[in-house]
Specification:
This protein has about 250 residues and is of the alpha/beta class. The chain has ten helices and eight strands.
Length: about 250
């Protein structure tokens, strides 16, 4: 997809059915505290998009007592706010205590996670990668409900950024963004999300704000920088942080 245009990518819609999935191989020690890592994909994808990152996180020795969840939501026909409420309800039906939860979320998934927290879902930490906290870049089309909810002018996004519950949790938020250089020069965005938006630069104090830079040399990057946010080979600072969170919490 390196050479696809932004418009071609956004209009290739693949609605996903909301759902929750957990690691079947999890062996819970009797009486051990329940700890959960919830992974959230971005738009135009489903839970399987987070498989590579999930694989890295699950293999950390520090993750041995953690239960991993990867969630589906519809990124096209539902707003991030609607999807968050659907997922909160699905998880509420699970027989677990989620008071020790770490969210790891890519792109739109970061807004879904923040909305879940704003709605009262407990979380000890949130790690977002390439999330449009202030909306997608102004040149990105927003043709449907899901993408419109991520637009800079979105009422849902404005409400989330002004939500007091979300604001109270921001010191446990860790924001990672991607910039890149290619034959056209240096770009303070990942083609889909500007670095200021990925950093949530007007959201006040957070635990982490970190920029990851990709160099394409004399090549043309296309939309590739944004997709790299799902590749653990390119976002090792984010996965390493997760490892520390698993050890600490």
């Amino acid at each position: 997809m390196k050479n696809a245009s932004i418009t071609e990518v956004i209009y290739k819609m693949e609605p996903a059915t909301p759902g929750v999935f957990q690691t079947a191989e999890f062996l819970e020690a009797k009486g051990a505290p329940q700890k959960h890592c919830i992974l959230l994909h971005g738009w135009n994808s489903d839970a399987s998009a987070m498989d590579a990152i999930k694989g890295v996180l699950m293999n950390f020795p520090e993750a041995r007592n953690w239960r991993f969840w990867w969630l589906n939501y519809d990124s096209h026909l539902a707003s991030f706010k609607t999807s968050a409420h659907q997922l909160v309800n699905l998880l509420a039906a699970q027989p677990y205590d989620f008071s020790t939860t770490v969210f790891v979320a890519y792109s739109m998934g970061g807004l879904v996670a923040r909305q879940m927290i704003a709605s009262g879902f407990p979380a000890k930490a949130l790690v977002t990668i390439c999330t449009p906290h202030h909306g997608v870049a102004p040149w990105v089309p927003t043709p449907n409900t899901g993408t419109q909810s991520m637009a800079p002018w979105s009422a849902d996004l404005a409400a989330l950024n002004n939500n007091p519950t979300d604001a109270a949790h921001r010191r446990s938020y860790h924001f990672f963004g991607i910039t890149y250089s290619d034959i056209r020069g240096k770009h303070e965005d990942d083609v889909i999300v500007t670095i200021g938006s990925a950093m949530g630069d007007t959201l006040g104090d957070t635990a982490t704000r970190l920029k990851i830079h990709l160099d394409y040399g004399n090549g043309l990057a296309g939309p590739d920088p944004h997709w790299r946010g799902m590749d653990p080979n390119y976002v090792k600072p984010a996965t390493s942080l997760c490892q520390k969170l698993f050890a600490r919490l």
